[in-house]
Amino acid sequence: MAAELIDGKKVAAGIREEVKNEVAAYRAAGIAPRLAVILAGDDPASVVYARSKEKACNNVGIDFELFAMPSAIAEEEILALIQKLNDDSRVHGIMIELPLPKHIKKQRVLEAVRPDKDVDGVHPVNRGYILSGTDGLFPATPQSVIEIMLRSGIEIQGKHAVLVGRGETVGKPLVFMLLNKNATITICHTKTKDLGYHTRQADILVAAVGRAKMITADMVKPGAIVVDAGINAVEGGGICGDVDFAAVQEVAGAISPVPGGVGSLTTVLIQKNLLKAVRMQTGK
Fold it and tell me: Which domains does the chain have, with CATH numbers?
């Protein structure tokens, strides 16, 4: 029997309605949630992402401002803009589109954003909040993994979660998010010996390693929950995940697809972060 589908689009639609209602309530109270996005250079994917965020914000009533800068922009000019946005009480969230031009120090720029405006959840202060179990602004993709399970009725507490991937963006933050939900964690990666032995122990198997169809059916315990947080380009167009979906869905109890799974939630969870940032800055 094929696995139950964990429908990211359906979950995202539910969260989007929550965001719309919360934005409307803020506007009625005289507060207009505003997101500022800084785009340096003309990387085609970054331009597309920035415009898609603008459209998503327009759909829920969030004010959006794009600061597009040339590739030759000086690092100090970007830092000056960030400081200006940090000091502007009308701006509640700041995002830096990556990659930045090569002459700019990425970490210096990311760390210049005020932690309570860091809706991407990349500032070291927010990373520290994840480790300590304190509330903060957390990165959207690992949040998506948690939310897609909780909102699909999947119990995390007490389950053995095996995470394949230890990257800075998804894997490392997710370890502590799962621990904060009282899961028991095993962390695997590309250097793990006999990977299949570990993945077959999982009640919940999360793939976030960035290798197309790396998780095969023989690596999954029958009935396990499989959440695919990978995105890989497919030759000829399109994307696929880190899980061999067609084969694994015959073994798993529930599985998230790519596309239509974890990635469906990321933009709306950035909007959720923006609203959390509004609360942190205004106390309302």
Answer: 30-114 (3.40.50.10860), 139-264 (3.40.50.720)
